[in-house]
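A favour, since you know our structure tokens better than I do. Go ahead and set the record down below.
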Amino acid sequence: MIRRTLPVAILIACAGCGVTPDPIRVQGRTLVVENQTHAGWRNVTVTVNGYYRGGADALAAGGHLDAGLSNFTTGLGQRFNPARESVHTVQVRATDSAGQPVTLDWSDQKPDRK
């Protein structure tokens, strides 16, 4: 009986040990930005690959912004085309409720492992 319940107990104990996901994630054709802080953000600007921009007026503490990649545009109105382009970099800039700048950067480049 103990042998049967031990694996179940280990699984239950590890369920709460989940790894916190990255605050910036590319999921298919959607970009997810998650505010993992306890302060709301305002004037949220998201830049994809240095050219395409999008964002939101506000992002609540613990909230997330789900944006279709095709909604990001350049200053000249060109839309990001996820069928032809890949996301290489994402920069998030905002201001928190205390007036402090928020800076998040993401890259598809993996750090060198030596």
Q: What stands out?
A: The chain has a mean pLDDT of 87.
